[in-house]
Design a protein that fits this description.
Structural class of chain A: mainly beta
Strand content of chain A: over 45%
Largest interface: A-B, 33 and 29 residues
CATH superfamily of chain B: Thiolase/Chalcone synthase
Distance between the termini of chain B: 19 Å
Number of helices of chain B: 13
CATH class of chain B: Alpha Beta
Largest sheet of chain B: 9 strands, mixed
Distance between the termini of chain A: 35 Å
Number of strands of chain A: 5
Helix content of chain B: 25-40%
Strand content of chain B: 15-25%
Strand order of the largest sheet of chain B: 3-2-4-7-1-8-11-10-9
CATH topology of chain B: Peroxisomal Thiolase, Chain A, domain 1
Order of helices and strands of chain A: EEEEE
CATH architecture of chain B: 3-Layer(aba) Sandwich
Order of helices and strands of chain B: EHEHEHEHHHHEEEHEHEHHHHEE
Oligomer: heterodimer
Helix content of chain A: under 10%
Shape of chain B: globular
Number of helices of chain A: 0
Amino acid sequence: MEEIFLSGKGNLYTYTVVRAPVLGYQGPIPFIVGEIELPEGLRIRSILTGCEPERLKIGMAMEITLGKLEEDEAGNKIVTYMFRPAGSLKGG
Amino acid sequence: MREVAVIGVGMTRFGRYEDKSIVAHGVEASQAALKDADLGWKEVQIAYVGAAQQGITPGTRVLAELGITGIPMINVENASATGSTAFREAYLAIATGLYDIGLALGVGKMGRAFAVASSPEPAEFNLMKAMGSLQPASFFAMRMMRRMEEYGTSIDSLAMVSVKNHRHAVYNPYAQYPKEVTLEEVHHARMICDPVTVLHLCPTGDGGAAAILCSKEKAKKYGARPLITVAASAFRTQVYSSKKHPAPDVTTVTAQEAYEQAGCGPWDMDLVQVHEAATVEEVDNYELLGFCNPGEGDRLIDEGVTQIGGRMPFNTDGGLLARGHPLGPTGLAQIWETVMQLRGEAGQRQVEGAKIGMAHMIGHDRVCVTHIMKK
């Protein structure tokens, strides 16, 4: 076993726009979920943000960002990693 | 190892039932299989009961209704491959010579919205759920998007899988949706995850299916019908695979093992039942099972090869899409269909001259169980 530092960059392997409710997910619908192929050899699932689905193209360069997933009962923001097209100005 | 025959099959009609428990489905399916085998419950020596997310010891709860005979009962869970695994284990119990007669039963009852791992689960599963990443529909939609990009597969080809399997189900009295759908209806059904409409996906549902297995030697004394034997029983899980260390898909490895056991190749089959929780999975499986090269599966659906009347009919009972997929019993419904076809008792969906058939299930992306049966 060896620890590997992930660069936070990758390429869009595939994606979909989710239009129906998902059990356990409290964020806005529709939302985009995709798989990012990382140069370190992994493929991970992530919410995609920072662009309209029409702009997404399989193979395009993506980068990691942080985004709000939901708010808990006390109004605290729950934040998670997300991916956006590389070079986007801001996340979602 | 000795040869094993399937001497009885039975199932309930898959669907959504308000007032029918897994016990009722299990008893009905088991009694139908016993009747089909012309056997009494007291003659069954061991039982494997497949059920996913149905609480503690569903096997004894269901089978106590048939009579409390003291036989060993094993509860089996392997997600979608649950029923196939129960069948496989019953096969082994008899093939090894420990028992002569066994029951494999699968039962299932599901809510409308199926979620992966809805019971006790590790924290990272909850996190993935919260991130909307553990939904079967989005998994299949992403697979479909990727296939369309990689191989140029058209949405029409994928929708045709739904059209074909619904057409097959029309002639299956036990199918959940025995109703034809058109290409346009598949395209314009409710959108779940682009480009997957609800008609690209299998339904949730309830049901039961059962098979009675018997050593071939002993089976010869039962009935005048053609004897159906198990020619191969293969069971694998996925080997670790990454971009740097790629391994073949579990379906390819399992099918290869099954072909070797049966001493035949894919095109020697007369009919095939495969796991197609979504349309794209059936086309992927044409390739993974070795019927064609990667990227060539579209042609088999486009040219009608895999419909009844074609050279290699797939999912002749309607498949997961139209016969239904209540998890526990699905693999045994495939066995039911294969046995009916090989006996020549499949009515209007009969594949002419069927002598050998394959049944393939995938459990939660990692488990594969494949059987080949012949007469």
